[in-house]
Amino acid sequence: MRRIFTFFLVPFSFSLFPFVLLCTLNxxxxxxxxxxxxxxxxxxxxxxxxxxxxxxxALIQSQARLTMIDETIAALARTSRLTLPSLFAALYxxxxxxxxxxxxxxxxxxxxxxxxTLAFTAALTLKHEIAKSGTNTxxxxxxxxxxxxxxxTLAVAAVLGRRFAIAAALVVAGGMLHPTTALWFGIWLGVxxxxxxxxxxxxxxxAAAAGIAGGLLLLTAGPLAGRLVVMDxxxxxxxxxxxxxxxxxxxxxxxxxxxxxxxxxxxxYRWRRTAGVLAxxxxxxxxxxxxxxxxxxxxxxxxxxxxxxxxxxxIPRIFWMLDFMAIAYxxxxxxxxxxxxxxxxxxxxxxILLASGARSAYIKFVRFPERPIAQIRIPDxxxxxxxxxxxxxxxxxxxxxxxxxxxxxxxxxxxxxxRDLFVEGIKDAAIGMYERDVAxxxxxxxxxxxxxxxxxxxxxRELAAxxxxxxxxxxxxxxxxxxxxxxSLRVYRLRP
Length: 496
What we know:
It is a single chain. The protein has 23 helices and 9 strands. The protein is mainly alpha-helical. The chain folds into 2 domains: 2-31 and 82-367, no CATH class; 382-493, no CATH class. The strands form 3 sheets. The chain has a 5-stranded mixed β-sheet, covered by helices on one side. Strand 2 (129-130) and strand 3 form a beta hairpin. It starts with a helix and ends with a strand.
């Protein structure tokens, strides 16, 4: 126990703060309510208070019913008595801590030098996009996908340690938070266990068959029913900006980038085998990477046919797992392949840390100098004050705002104001991928306010009468009664 404390827990604890700091700075700071939280926070708010979002409930539930993240967050909020901003910040920190822990445990199994583990951990702070997958390796806010991925890295470490029951439990836990991320880890690690553990093959084969049967049941009679359909042109037209969903339309460079992962992994695997440093179950992990690519290839015809469930699974995200494995192997190749020297190891680690630090400084002081490192709550700006006023209005009040207001002000009205919203351009369009009715509703509503900056008093009143809108947020001067104002931002009352 003393050895574990001295050689693992102490250095891990001292390394955690700089790891979290670099991850956060590389992600342009932590921000509550940003981006995909336009969905996750309202879903949790509705679980905590079912009287919220009476009009938007169908839109929110179209994705929320596919996961247990909203129930989980609501349960944690009730148990911990934390506000959602504080809880989401805590979950963000836990996600990064688990990611670092996964990297360290993997390093203990794959590497002979602590320098290599340090290089691997430092490399993970360099946020980057997995090409045309709609996924970043890090986010500047808590995302269930990131937490599921962190649990997946711990599952990889468990497989490397031949602790398959723990790995399975971690994947299942990730599946409750973000099913598709856990699915790809399940395939990767399930194949790894099948390849390396003949004694487990009957159990794994039975589990795979049960999983397939369960999936078919969900698709025919369960919550996924109705997804074995072909998306019609009208539905597909609402996803025109989501080009990452359609791999056969990718430009050549994206194919080259994503397909490069596997040869890199295979080449370094053979290098490690020649060097005699392979871990016991490493061959299975590499075969599991091959299986992920085969799943991607097998899905392409169904994607081309625009089968709804295949598009909704967002299969290009399997390249995130290959990216992770390639980084782990590349760190070994840079430091331990051939003749190991401390000078070489220090140079590699120093270069990675310098790159991460320089990038962090550029993002913080050049690109986004106005952003704090961590924005735990909705900031006290004109928008924040207006949203504070919104939270004091009737819970069934219905609001109108610029379709891009979440980008303009940093958070969605549903998040910051906790009220029903006519439409939010970016997130509502993304949710439309899961339900045709939601997609068409979003399209029609975006068309209604496609010239929002030139909204007239008469047009605002027409929309209010047609859709039962109560308030409108705008910086324009209109001949409507002002219910609240802060700076240039006005909240107009649309109905008596």
